[in-house]
Design goal:
This protein is of the alpha+beta class. The chain contains four helices and eleven strands; from the N terminus they run ββββββαααβββββα. Keywords: Phosphoprotein, SH2 domain.
Length: 218
């Protein structure tokens, strides 16, 4: 029988925060779920003595135990909603729960849009490079205008056997945005473009957030 450490847990955005108890102001651990691949019940038929489920991430699997079956289904539904940006159809929910999930979904969409806006800077290619090199702790991904007024570019900085800067052209097709890669990827919004880079790099890229520049988009 596996031993579990007891925590009071909060889901904020796509991150689980673990506290020693409800009154403790600082969290003890946190788990980022933006790259979640799937969720599975450990013992699907277990109804007593707590219910378990497994969070499958690219680099680890995390098993959690909650009070009961209903509690497990509710946790799974909220986690899937914020990571997939859609209310899951695979879980049976009550009308009140569906209302809450749709509210959470709208909040998460707004949060991600705000995050995308914060990493947009009206800077040149060279200025983006200088920003990423000067303050790497602020993030390593910048969305900026392209060489014309219609399109965009993404500049990233990664440490791969030393610092490495790359630029990706993002073309506004009128119906979406195409990232020019070896195999081009077309997405519906600039927020989806940022999400694509975050997920494909398994969290190694983070939006560059600074208070120095006016980075409002639109």
């Amino acid at each position: 029988e596996q031993d579990f450490q007891q925590y009071w847990t909060e889901l904020r955005g796509t991150t689980l925060f673990f506290y020693m108890d409800k009154k403790t102001p600082a969290y003890t651990k946190k788990l980022e779920l933006v790259n979640l691949t799937s969720i599975a019940n450990v013992y699907p038929d277990e109804r007593r003595g707590g219910a378990r489920f497994l969070l499958m991430l690219p680099n680890e699997d995390v098993e959690l135990k909650v009070e009961d079956y209903d509690n497990r289904e509710e946790w799974k539904s909220f986690i899937l909603t914020v990571t997939q940006l859609a209310v899951p159809a695979c879980i049976s929910l009550l009308p009140g729960q569906l209302i809450r999930l749709n509210e959470v979904l709208e909040k998460e969409k707004k949060r991600r849009t705000a995050m995308m806006n914060r990493c947009f800077y009206a800077v040149s290619r060279q200025e983006a490079i200088e920003m990423l090199e000067k303050d790497p702790s602020w993030g390593n991904l910048i969305l900026r205008p392209g060489s014309d007024s219609k399109n965009f570019s993404v500049t990233i900085r990664q440490d791969i056997d030393g610092p490495c800067i790359k630029h990706y052209r993002v073309v506004n097709t009128g119906k979406g945005y195409t990232i020019e890669l070896a195999r081009s990827v077309t997405l519906l919004s600039l927020r989806d473009v940022i999400d694509y880079f975050l997920k494909e790099t398994r969290g190694s890229l983070m939006p560059f957030v600074s208070h120095t520049y006016d980075n409002r988009l639109g």
